[in-house]
Amino acid sequence: MSVTIDGIGSFTPSQANHLGTGGEASVYKKDGLAVKILKEPDKARANNLPDKIDLLSHILSPRIAIPRHKVYDNKGLFVGYAMPLVAGEPVFKIISGDWKKRNGFQHSDAVKVVEQIRLGNVEAHKFGAVIGDGNEMNYIYAPGNQVVLIDTD
After folding, report:
1. Per residue in 106-144, pLDDT tens?
2. What angle do CA 43, 48, 52 make, to 5 degrees?
3. What is the distance between the alpha carbons of residues 16 and 141, in angstroms, rounded to a whole number?
4. Rounded to an integer, what distance in angstroms lies between the CA atom of residue 6 and that of residue 65?
5. What is the pTM of this model?
């Protein structure tokens, strides 16, 4: 199935560009974007997700990966969105003993990560956004103790 990314163009999700699948969607990469194709786009449309994406688009923060482009099927129906692709590891991985040892991750680094999570949440709330699924998979740890909130629909 080929889809259209608003403002970008045509895209064909495939195993070659597949990043992962969760409860709500499958995610693919394309040119610096994470393209989220929803499993239940009818439900998302009924819950006004396209309008919510429009409301979120004014948020400009390095701590939050905001949906920037709507994705449509060949009938022109909303089926997902695209947001900046964030390089790094989900926060849950960096708290494991093995990862910490391999990367020289210290207690002071963990404190900085928690502070980055807090600041990202504060910024989201400052812009009127609500974080409905703030779990350890939705915070990405990037180099320099930077943490980016993803899945902000």
Report:
1. 888 888 888 999 998 898 888 888 777 778 888 998 877
2. 130
3. 24
4. 17
5. 0.86
